[in-house]
Amino acid sequence: MIKKIILTPFQKFVKIESFSGILLLISTLIALAWANSPYADSYTALWQYKLGFETPFFELQKPLILWINDGLMAIFFFLIGLEIKREFLIGELNSMKKIAFPLFGALGGMLVPVLLFLLLNQNPETLQGWGIPMATDIAFSLAVLNVLGSRVPLSLKIFLTAFAIVDDIGAVLVIAVFYSGAINLGLLLTALGLLAVLYALAVKGIYSKYIITSFGVIIWILFLKSGIHPTLAGILLAFSVPVRQKIDTPVFIDNLSKITERIKRAKIMNNAVLSKEQIAEIDELEYWTERYQSPLQRLEHSLHGWVAYFIIPIFALANAGVSFSSSTALDQELVLLIISCLVVGNSVGITSIILLAKKFKLIEVPKDIGKQHIIGVSFLAGIGFTMAIFIAGLAFKDNPSYIDSAKIGILIGSLLSALIGYSVLKWNTKKTNHA
Questions:
Q1: Is 53 helix (H, G, I), strand (E, B) or coil?
Q2: CA–CA gap between residue 330 and residue 336 (Å, rounded)
Q3: Residues forming beta bridges with residue 52, ordered by sequence position
Q4: What is the rounded distance in angstroms from the CA atom of residue 28 to the CA atom of residue 319?
Q5: What is the pTM of this model?
């Protein structure tokens, strides 16, 4: 019973991410079909439609696709920030022993694809795309693992989740350092000053969703105008959300018991309407419940569904629509390069570094994870869909042809990685069962 209670939150997380992967696939197929249909012009026109506002002192006008990529994706990065903070404080990354296994895997999954890209790339104009193959899409990869169900150990799913979070940290750092524009230092320092205020409030245990929302909007705009990619504001903002409750369990239980007793003694109306005494006790219960919940976990729980079921599918719908018409000038070398880096770079990099680290006893691999499991997951790590497309848009923002080429490479590379990873893990399951 205890084991079931402990595992349930993670299993729910896997279920959400898996279904999100299915929605991602559906959105991708719709985008591709729409972009290659007789209504292709409407697809382009929709995402290029400008929205915003203008005042005598300030203007913010952006195409719809940039509101998605810069705005909605900031919420996606905010959720990633919450997950990173939770994992480092109370999760799978809160000790060197726990972090070592996914850390070595993530290093292999980032460094080797990047090195392979730099070694094989022959075009100086596409060199900026080196960061594309280094990111793993957790929704798609967990969806593939979930198809295998109980045939793969839960520890493998935990490893993939922790690995993807470490991988996200690397991708965020790369975006911040290498894919931001010319920096307006004054605006950036102002944004960092506001973040410092939020961090100071968090240290003192002061948290308000209204304060963090209003500050968040201002910080997002300051990042946007300063030249730093605004999605990074989401990550930094998440670190200001406290993880600890205002009251501990004994205090909550004590008040819960008192409220329960008072509700029992409260006046009961003759119909379905609650009495004033009952309403007052419910308000009291809500007050203590809010103080007992972790602000970080509460936010993470409320945002996870929106990100998984709305923001990421909308991102895929807006970004995955690549036209395959003959008029599209694709860079075949870039397509093949990204495919190679996603499929070969991740599989070779992750497997080799983990096995070497294990041989030299730098990491401890769970007993139920075998060599074949590591090889299978290393291929799944080549599913770089969401973050890879995001980085491609930043790397080649001035060259639509390279963006389309990169997207095709990402789609094909991610599909091959998924198929190979699934096949390896399924074959390993049959082999284990046979044995």
A1: strand
A2: 11
A3: 61
A4: 8
A5: 0.81
8 A C-beta contact, residue 82 and residue 303: yes
pLDDT tens for 151-198 read 788 888 889 888 988 888 898 889 888 988 778 989 999 999 999 999
Q: What are the φ/ψ torsions at residue 153 (nearest 5 degrees)?
A: -65, 150
| Cα three-residue angle 18-23-25, rounded to 5 degrees | 95
Residue with tokens 């205020």: 197
DSSP-derived secondary structure letter, 204: T
What tokens does 150 get? 């109980």
336-378 pLDDT, tens digit each:
999 999 999 999 999 999 999 999 999 988 888 999 999 999 9
- Give the whole-angstrom CA distance, residue 399 versus residue 385: 20
Alpha helices in 179-248 (DSSP H): 185-203, 209-226, 231-238
Task: Please state, in angstroms and rounded to a whole number, the distance separating the CA atoms of residues 127 and 395.
Answer: 9
Percent helix / strand / coil, the chain, rounded to 5: 75, 0, 20
Asked whether the beta carbons of 61 and 348 are under 8 A apart, the reply is no
> Residues, the chain, total?
435
How does 137-152 read in b/e, with b if 16+ C-beta sit within 10 Å?
Answer: bbbbbbbbbbbbeeeb
